[in-house]
Every structure is written in structure tokens, then in C-alpha cells.
């Protein structure tokens, strides 16, 4: 009897948590989409709101950059993105930390020259004071 009661209580607690997790997943997916659009439209204000002050990106060339670099690129519209989108995204939660893995597809111009590429990426998000902030990213170019 105790085992059945324990199982029932655990099942009820898991089902109660499911809507909250679904809401958090929806929020993070929307934030990632908003960030992609901010890069595509060179919206430094939105990038600054979403990225943590100490945000770092390890690029596909192993260069480590930060929030200030992203803001400068957006303000200068360099590179210019015609396409900046994420797809095939998988999301996992670890308390107030979330890891997203997926593919970023980009197309645009840099120094007047066209480019197009796909990158396998990992984004790390932390929830602080009720807000999700992007704290770290890693991108690896997918070679066709």
C-alpha cells in the first residue's frame, strides 16, 4: 500500500510540474527566436537585454568573444544577416539552468562579401531573479 501511495504522490507531483516546464520551454524558445531576429535586424538593444553582461561565445574558429563584441557588430550592421535562424533545437533543464543544442543557419554579407553557413550550437541559459539570460554559447561550423 505504501509503495502505491508513494508512486501516486510522485506521479501527481510530476504532472503538476509539467505545465511549468512547458511554460519555461516556451519562454526559452521564444527568447532564442527573439535573439535570432535581433541579430538579423542588427538590434543591439534586444541583444543587450537577452545576453548576460558576462556572456561569452566560443566561435567556430576558437575565438572567444563577448557581449560587447555582439553589441558592436549589431550597431555597425557588420556582418549583415539576411538569414539568422535556429532549427532542430533540443532543450534540457537542470534547475535554473537550460542547455539548448541545435543548428543556426546564417546568410548575409561580411566586408561586402556574401556568406552562408550552418553551425551546430550550444547555448547555456541561467535563470536569475525570474529572468532567463544567455550566459555562454559555442558554435561549430558544419562542413558539407
TrEMBL record:
SUPFAM superfamilies: NTF2-like. Keywords: Signal. The lineage of its organism: Bacteria, Pseudomonadati, Pseudomonadota, Gammaproteobacteria, Lysobacterales. The keyword Protease does not apply. InterPro entries: DUF4440 (IPR027843), NTF2-like_dom_sf (IPR032710). This is Nuclear transport factor 2 family protein. The keyword Signal applies. Residues 28-134 form the DUF4440 domain. Transmembrane segments: none annotated. It comes from the Bacteria. Residues 1-22 form the signal peptide.
Amino acid at each position: 500500500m505504501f509503495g502505491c501511495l508513494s508512486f501516486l504522490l510522485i506521479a501527481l507531483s510530476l504532472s503538476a510540474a509539467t505545465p511549468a516546464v512547458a511554460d519555461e520551454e516556451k519562454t526559452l524558445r521564444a527568447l532564442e527566436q527573439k535573439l535570432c531576429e535581433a541579430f538579423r535586424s542588427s538590434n543591439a538593444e534586444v541583444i543587450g537585454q537577452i545576453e548576460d553582461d558576462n556572456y561569452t561565445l566560443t566561435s567556430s574558429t576558437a575565438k572567444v568573444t563577448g557581449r560587447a563584441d555582439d553589441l558592436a557588430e549589431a550597431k555597425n550592421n557588420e556582418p549583415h544577416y539576411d538569414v539568422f535562424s535556429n532549427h532542430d533545437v533540443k532543450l534540457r533543464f537542470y534547475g535554473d539552468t537550460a542547455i539548448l543544442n541545435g543548428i543556426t543557419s546564417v546568410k548575409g554579407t561580411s566586408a561586402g562579401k556574401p556568406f552562408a553557413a550552418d553551425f551546430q550550437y550550444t547555448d547555456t541559459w541561467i535563470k536569475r531573479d525570474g529572468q532567463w539570460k544567455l550566459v555562454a554559447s559555442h558554435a561549430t561550423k558544419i562542413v558539407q
